[in-house]
Specification:
This protein is of the alpha/beta class. It has a single domain, classed as Rossmann fold (3-Layer(aba) Sandwich), CATH 3.40.50. The protein is 36% helix and 23% strand.
Length: 240
C-alpha cells in the first residue's frame, strides 16, 4: 500500500511538472480592446449624454497599458486593438482634428502593438490567428467600451443614434477558439452590464472566466495613478 501511494505521488508530481513545462513552452500576449466614443449629435438630447470627452475609453486603456508594461516588463507582448472608424468620425465631425495621432502617441510611449479594426470578424480573426496560437497564448484580455448585458458595442451612438452597427454578441463567442488562451487567463470587461449575461456565455464558449459588471460602469475618471473605471452605482458589483 505504501509503495502504491509513493507511485501515485510520483505520477502526480510528474504530471504537474509536465503541465508547468508545457505552459512555459509558449509565449504570452496581453490584449486590450478599446471601443469608440459616441457623437454629441446623437447624445445632446439625452438627460445624461455619453462621452463628453472623446478619450473616455482611450484614457482608461492607456492607464491599463502602462500597468501591463510595468508589471510584465519591457519585452512583454502587449497588443492594443482599437475600433478605428469611431475615432475617425469623432475627430472629423466633432473634435475637428486627427485623433489617430493621439492613439499612436500612446502606442509609442508604452511600446505596444496598436492594431486597428473595423469589423467584428477582424476581432475574432485576431484572437484566433493574430499570433500563432500554438506558440503564443492570450494571458490577459480586457475590454474598454460601450456594452450591454449581451454584447460589446464598438460604435455605440457613433454612426446611428443610441445603437450600434458593429458589435460582438454573446451568441457569437463560439467563434473564438478555446485554445487561444493561457491557463487561468485574466479576462475582464470594463463595460456596462456584461456581468448580467455575457460572462456566462463567455465561460461556456471559451472555458475561461470573465469578470463583468452588474449594472453600469463610470468612465468619468481622473489622472490618479492606477485609476480604473468604477461601478456606476452603490448597487453595482463585479462578478465572474
Amino acid at each position: 500500500m505504501k509503495t502504491r501511494l509513493i507511485a501515485l505521488l510520483f505520477l502526480g508530481s510528474f504530471a504537474l511538472a509536465g503541465a508547468l513545462r508545457a505552459e512555459e513552452a509558449y509565449k504570452k500576449e496581453y490584449i486590450v480592446i478599446t471601443g469608440g466614443p459616441s457623437l454629441i449629435e446623437w447624445e445632446k438630447f439625452k438627460r445624461v449624454p455619453h462621452d463628453h470627452w472623446w478619450a473616455n475609453f482611450a484614457h482608461a486603456s492607456r492607464i491599463r497599458l502602462e500597468e501591463l508594461r510595468q508589471k510584465n516588463g519591457p519585452d512583454a507582448m502587449i497588443t492594443w486593438l482599437v475600433y478605428k472608424p469611431s475615432y475617425i468620425r469623432r475627430g472629423t465631425r466633432q473634435e475637428k482634428r486627427d485623433l489617430l495621432s493621439d492613439l499612436h502617441s500612446i502606442e509609442k510611449k508604452f511600446g505596444v502593438n496598436l492594431v486597428f479594426f473595423s469589423t467584428q470578424k477582424e476581432i475574432i480573426d485576431y484572437l484566433n490567428a493574430g499570433k500563432p496560437r500554438d506558440q503564443v497564448k492570450i494571458a490577459d484580455l480586457e475590454y474598454f467600451g460601450h456594452s450591454n448585458k449581451c454584447c460589446f458595442m464598438f460604435d455605440y451612438s457613433n454612426e446611428i443614434d443610441s445603437g450600434s452597427k458593429v458589435w460582438l454578441h454573446q451568441t457569437e463567442l463560439g467563434q473564438i477558439n478555446r485554445n487561444d488562451f493561457a491557463r487561468h487567463a485574466f479576462i475582464k470587461s470594463w463595460g456596462c452590464h456584461t456581468g448580467e449575461s455575457m460572462i456566462d456565455y463567455w465561460r461556456r464558449a471559451t472555458g475561461q472566466h470573465m469578470i463583468g459588471a452588474i449594472g453600469s460602469t463610470d468612465y468619468s475618471g481622473s489622472d490618479v495613478p492606477g485609476w480604473h473605471p468604477q461601478l456606476g452605482s452603490a448597487e453595482g458589483r463585479w462578478v465572474q
